[in-house]
Amino acid sequence: AYMVSMVYIPGETLIPDSAAQGRVAQHRMNPTEIEFAVRDLIAKPYDPETFPYELIGIYNASKVTLSRLKSGQTNAAKRSGDVLWKKHLFFRSAEPGEDVGAIGDALVADPLTAKHKPRFILVTNGEQVHGRDLRLDDTLNVEYAQLDEKSDFILPLAGFERRAIVDEHPADIKAAKKLKKPVSYTHLRAHETGRN
Hints:
Helix content is 33%, strand content 21%. The protein has helices spanning 31-43, 51-58, 63-71, 100-109, 111-116, 170-179, 185-193, and strands at residues 3-10, 83-85, 89-93, 120-124, 128-133, 138-143, 160-167. The strands form 2 sheets. Strands 2-3-4-5-6 form a 5-stranded mixed β-sheet. Strands 1-7 form a two-stranded antiparallel ribbon. It starts with a strand and ends with a helix.
């Protein structure tokens, strides 16, 4: 039995924003700061109109990116209230009591998802959160109040890629050590000449 744990590796480039070149760079939060910022966000009452933009901002999107998404300039979503950030995120707010998993399934099947290829699908109604990482084929189902505990799920939005690390089984480590033991020259010489 192998143990798999996740490690987060900073990407070579964070979310690009060609319009912000030459400007003073904003502070980029690390994963711990992101977790605390998500905790602060979910402590407030859920607002379906501001939540997606605040969440995207927490994950190190620039102010220019946020203003363009809010204005609709780069929001590729067709439905009011949806946020489709090309190659990054497709967000939809649901009504309280609605099945967020079923809405997530609908977003995966949506032609806009195929066209704009967002990495993540995220649906919430302020009670439950359903997320999908379409690149890693991973799913998140969590209560809204516990989203901060799973804030690492969409860390790739902030430039931290998730990688699985497989811990070696103790028996495999022991066998590898035995194989690496040095063989004495005299033992090897005796084996070559047929003398034991």
